[in-house]
Structures are given as C-alpha cells and as structure tokens.
Amino acid sequence: MKKNKKNRKDFDRWNESKKNIHLNKSGRFYREREIWWCSVGVNVGNEQDGGGKLFQRPVLVVKGLSRRTCIVIPLTTSENKHPMRVRLGDIGGKESSVVISQLRVVDTQRFNERLSILSKSRFTSIQKAVRELF
To answer: Any coiled-coil ranges, and where (predicted)?
Structure first.
C-alpha cells in the first residue's frame, strides 16, 4: 500500500532527535497538574504524535512516579467528541482536551517548557475520568 507524503511519518528524523534528548541528562522539575510541551515524537498508527522541529505536543502531568518519570496525558485541539476526551478549555490560546486513552509514562528529559497549570477542580475531574478508564 503506497502512502502519500502527507501521511508519511518521519521516523528517521525523530530517531535523531530522540538520541539528542537521551544525551541531555538534565530532567525537569515538575508537579502534578502542570501542562508541559513534551517531545513525544513520531509514534505508530493512531498514537498521538508530536509536531514541529522538537516533535512536541502539550501533555498534562497526572501522576509523579519518581524524580525523573511521570504519567502524562497528551492534549489535542481536535473538536471531535469521544468518551476518552475531556475538555480542558483554553490552554495556550487554544481550546484543548486531554486524550485519556493515550496516557503514558515519560522521562522528564522530554519536557521542553512549562505551558500552564490546571486548576484543582479541573484536575480532579481528569483524575476521576482516568480512574473510570481502569
């Protein structure tokens, strides 16, 4: 099956970028409820990809695991309604939702810049939705 250029994923460029991220041994100090630009990379199939030069997208930190690792949920600006998406409102000037089905563990070496911090009430609603997933 031949894919057009628009649907091609640049795994090679992401692999080079990922090597540089790995060599950068300085993680970021983070807290739950924070939203970070995170180099999530180019992923397989329908997994959420990052964009731009750093292959990044915003993620919400939902649970700290250690000083260097945490559980995050990627954000999307897609307006498609889905039971695994919870609206957050305006984040960085764009209406956003978290994609709970894309929850994952990341090393804080992937974090680039803190974007925002979620209100406690909104964060509580996200935690509830995550618990319902399991």
So the answer is: none
